[in-house]
Amino acid sequence: ITQNDTQEPADGVGKFRDMVEIYNSGDKALPLRGLTPDDSVALTGEAFPVPETDDGSPGDFWTFRGAAFATIPARGYLVLFLNNRPDPSQWCEPYSGFGLKDDGSEPITLWGPVTGTDEDGNKIREKIDEVWLPPLPKDVSLGRKPEDPGPALVTPEDTFKHFRLYPPGH
Fold first, then answer.
1. Minimal CA–CA distance to 126: which of 100, 152, 97?
2. What is the mean pLDDT of residues 6-10?
3. What is the rounded distance in angstroms from the CA atom of residue 146 to the CA atom of residue 160?
4. Which helix (H) or strand (E) holds 21?
5. If you placed Cys at 141, which of 1, 5, 100, 164 could pair as Cys (CB 3.0 to 4.6 Å)?
6. Which of 12-16, 36-40, 133-137, 139-143 has the highest mean pLDDT?
7. In Å, how far from its chain's centre is CA 100?
8. What does the pLDDT read at residue 74?
9. pTM value?
10. pLDDT tens across 79-127, in order?
11. Which DSSP string corresponds to 99-145?
């Protein structure tokens, strides 16, 4: 959900935030946080775009950190608030520190841990999933049913073949 003013869940201070829900469709728990950022699952979005590798730099990824969301149980969910943490006491809730545009111009991408480097020394991460959000009105979410996930990487053109819009109350 982008532009969220009314849709649950609210965070620990009672605010409705932009959010993404991540589903683990596997039979085993999905560890999100490793010992280092390179060992951790990562996201890219507006504040953390897909890293540039042409100049030899690995770029930046937002990585999961914090004990409250170290794993997603098998067939379990994690709601990640796409915002800065409003209060340092809210460490038990996952906040990304970055948001997503609501105009359909960017994806949110989930990346696996670093698996090695390429010939230029750039770190290599495998894409786990990527979703291109279409332009969304206020308080409307886009969801993919776990039992009908479609391909892991869904292009903007194929979005509505695999996703459904959920206006408030649905």
1. 152
2. 83
3. 15
4. strand 19-23
5. 1
6. 36-40
7. 10
8. 92
9. 0.73
10. 888 876 666 665 667 777 777 777 877 778 888 888 988 888 878 888 8
11. ---SSS--EEEEEEEEEEE-TTS-EEEEEEEEEEPPP--TT-EEE--
Count CB atoms within 10 A of the CB of residue 72: 19
Question: How much helix, strand and coil, in percent to the nearest 5, is found in the chain?
Answer: 10, 30, 60
| Residue 69 to residue 56: CA distance in whole angstroms | 32
Distances (CA, A) of 32 to 6, 7, 19, 73, 88: 28, 26, 17, 11, 21
Give long-range contacts, CB 8 A cutoff, 24+ apart: 154-161.
154/130, 156/104, 156/132, 159/131, 159/132, 159/133, 159/134, 160/134
8-state DSSP, 97? S
* Preceding omega of 9 cis (within 30 degrees of 0): yes
Q: What are 52-71's pLDDT values in tens digits?
A: 544 433 456 778 765 556 78
Which residue in 82, 109, 78 sits closest to 95, CA to CA? 82
CA dist 129 and 32 (Å) reads 14
